[in-house]
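Field: COMPLEX_INPUT
Field: COMPONENT_COUNT = three
Field: RESIDUE_TOTAL = 271
Field: MODE = joint
Values follow.
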Amino acid sequence: MPELPEVETTRRGIEPHILNRKIANVVLRERKLRWPVPAKLPANLVGNSVQSVKRRAKYLLIDMGNGTLMIHLGMSGSLRIVPKSALPEKHDHADFQFDNDKILRYRDPRKFGCILWIAEDLNQHPLLSKLGPEPLADEFDSDYLFALSRKRKAPIKTFIMDGHMVVGVGNIYANEALFRAGIRPTRQAGSLSKVKTRLLVSTIKKVLAEAIQVGGTTLRDFIGGDGEPGYFKQSLAVYGRAGLPCVKCGGILKEIRQGQRSTVYCGKCQR
DNA sequence: AAATCTCCCTGTAGGC
DNA sequence: TGCCTACAGGGAGATT
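Field: COMPLEX_OUTPUT
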C-alpha cells in the first residue's frame, strides 16, 4: 500500500513526464471515491500546464497555475504514466491525457483515495491546514516531539501515526520504527524520556529515508512496473511477522490491535 | 482537548 | 472447485 515513501516515489516517477506539459483531455470513469471527484475538474484542467509536482504528507499536489490538483492514493491507489493507446482496466478511475500522448492514469480498487481541485490558498485548505510537520524535515526533531508528547496518555504508536503530530508515518513504518528503537508500542507517549524520544525521531527518519531509497530502485522501471513497492518488504522486521521469531533475540513476535490497526512487536526487545 | 470509534471499499485468505 | 465470511487499512469526521 502506498505509504509516504511510495507516494514520494510516485511523485518522482511522474514529475519528469508531466512537468510543463499541457493537459489535453481528462476522462473520469468513476467519480465516487473518498469524496466525489468534482464534475468540473476537466474544465479546470484542460488547456493548462503543470507548473510543479509536489507532495505534502501523502497528498500529491499538482500546481496547474489556476489551482491545484490534489490526489491521495488511499491504501490501494496508484498513478502511472501509460501510452495513449493503453486501454483502461478495471478500477482505472481517471485519465489525465497530456499533449505528448502520455496518460497519467489513476487506479484505486478500494476507492479510499481522492482527486480534488483546490482553487484557493493551499495552506487554508481544511485537509492540509492542520497537518503536522514532514517527518524528514528539520522541523520534526526530538525537542518538538518531546514537548508535544508531554502529559499525553495515548499509546506512542497511535501518537506518531496521528497526522496532527507528524505526517506520513503509516502503520508499517510505525511498527518498524518502534521495533528498531526498542520502544513498546503500547507505552504512553508522555512516558518516553528525552533520550528515547531522540532515538525514536532519528529512527523514524532513518526508516523512511531507507524506504525512499528502496523506492528509488523501483523508480527506474516505474513506467513498466506494477506499482507495487515490493523491495522494502524484505527489510521488515516486525510488520506481517506476528508469530515468527524476532530478528534480534529469536523470541516470538506478538500481535495486538491498537485503534483498529495491527501492531506487531517483540515483548523482550521493546520495553 | 484528548482519546476512541465508525465508516468508506474490494481483493485476498481461510473455512467448509 | 467454489461459495461465504472475515479482515485489512488511511484518515476524516463523529462521538465519548
